[in-house]
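Dear support,

I submitted the protein below through the web form. The confirmation email said the job was done, but the results page showed an empty box. After a refresh the structure appeared. I'm attaching both so you can tell me whether what I see now is the final result or a partial one.
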Amino acid sequence: MKAKILIAVIFFSGMISAQQTQKKTEEIKTIEEVKLSKKVFVKKSDRFVYDVASSPVAKGTNSFNLLQQTPMLSSTDGKTFKIMGKSNVVFYINGKRTLMDAEAITEMLKNTPSENIQRIEVVTVPGSEFQVEANEGVVNIVMKKSKTNGYNGTLKMNNSQSFYNNPSSGIAFNLRQNKWSFNSNFNMGSYREREKYTLSNGDATFRNDSYGTMDDPNKNYGGSINIDYEINKNQNLGFSYNMRYNKSFGSVLDMTNFENGILSNRTVNQEDAQTRNHNFNLNYEIKTDTLGSKLTSNISYLWFNRDKVSLGETFPLSNIASYSAFKQAVPQIINNYAANIDYIKKFRNESTFAIGTSYNFTNTDSDTRQDDFVGNSFVNNTNLSNHFIYKENIIGAYATYERKFSEKFTGKIGTRLEATISSGDVVGKPDIGFERNYNNLLPYATLNYAINENHNITYSFSSRVRRPGFGQLNPSRTYFTPTNYIQNNPFMQASRNYNQEINYMYKNAFYANVSFNFAENAYSQLPLQGKMINNATGEETKFLRYIRTNYGNNKQLGLTLGMNKAWFGDIWTTNYSANFEYATYKGSVTKDPTSQPIEGFTEILQPYTINVKTLNMFFQTNNMLRLSAKKDWYLGINYWIMPSREMEIGKLHTQQSFDVNIKKIMGNFTFLVELNDVFNQNIDDIRTIQNNGSFNTVRSFQYRREFNVNVTYNFGNQKLKKAREVKSANDAIRSRT
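What the results page shows now:
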């Protein structure tokens, strides 16, 4: 009897054990299924989230290349990004805006390992809490984090062969020990650019043609330090410092010029330039409850200094030309002082209320001096020498409220008030100056409805102000030839922009976006043709002046269709998009507000009229193929094409680029070989024709076919948490330097 009972106990115990084992097996299978069906590309209430942490695309490359593979983002020049082919990009890292100019941001992205990135967030219509301008979109790069003490780092080496050979290297180091977090990076490299120009302009009676090249050697040094101290579990104190130094000595622009088909002269412009940028930010953050509510404050200081000294000489090559020369010094110093306070209150019903205020004071000092060669010496040109001082105060305040009405429906509304007081003066020239005082109320709203697990639709609206860059306000000139140059304009005004979008996403893989953008009092860089008449002799000198100025309004109606999906068990990863845009540009420019009367001369300008209605398109395909079962060999094949498109400045002819790359992963080493623009089809070619018969052509060949070899080595504990990144107070200012 006891034996039977023992057998029964063993039998039932075995059944229970088997059931538990089966249950655990089912749980494991369930976990595996969840992992396999992980949503890589997701639409949140106000942004798209691309989770790249476990994607093979993110292995062994840099952040710049990874962004090129990100849905909705594209880069046609290898330097800047667009969202859906139209909106300019403002970069944030862990919620903190990068405080660097465009070239420094490119260097930073190309020297940041892609393995450090957790996800990329694309905000097509930024909310009121973001300090952005016009139709700018936000890309927030969220870095990987862990609470493990220790250190790690990444060493990168790159060699690029285009027209010239350009090496670069960088190192990033992270350390975390209990309450202290520290991370830093440093990169350096040399980059020598070659650009080939063809310039033509004129009308039915006259024609100017210029052919030549520009060689621009650059040495770059950059880095950052971030320190974070956890005072207690609710309070943090952080300090960050960013710097960049660029040296470009010995840049040469060499142009041969023809007038009406007859060889006239040769222009050689030699330039020495250097840029220095230092930014300091002190941050304090306190959590006010367990729901995630917090108060943050920042104090920032930004110092930017760009020095440029050039010598321009024109040598006669025929009896109709003579020797001429000028010396030009164009320094620019920017000091910015900023502070902001933000409070985010979270409620148990999953709603969020945010309020904040900010203050920015910017002072720019640009003492431009130009000396012309007269007789046997250089004499100061008082008309083109300007000591321009610009001061700007911006007081901003915002409030937003976000609520989750149900599991399917969420909404967010907000508004931003910006009060701007600015003044610009040229020392000793009281007729060149202005004072402006204007306020802007900028509403924002977004509604997100998750129809079901596979369908999501969002509507967004925002209003923004676009202010000119500080360098664009300095009334100085940049010369291609003595009669072909860029003229900055201190009288440019801010434009008002209104943006609307409807986004639809299907199965977190396919998306469609319809957008409408309207810009009021828009500005751009436009070509003005004219002539300078010597009143005594009647001699005429014709010129082409690219002036930055307000011209009128523009409207853009866009449609973007895209897909981001992995096939055949992640063997083939694809990212395709097609952008269609119907745009209208309307306005005119009849005068140059920067023109100064010259005794004995009369200046006559031809009006520039803009009346463009056009359909623009852009297509992009990115493919990543896994070549081995060990996941250590990958092949990338990418292609984009931008058919001819009309813009304010003229017609930009078709551009395209075919790129291939292959990478090999060996433990902590990753080797990446890239060939960009294989067929040399990425060329800037802009042509303008006015109804009065005047024309202008600019063709720039930048030798974008490039062979790159990258080696990356990761060392230390790769699960280390980075120092807390914070949003700086002068975020809105830095992009305008």
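Response: this is the final, complete result; the empty box was a page-load delay. Residues 146-734 form a domain with the Maltoporin; Chain A fold (CATH 2.40.170.20).
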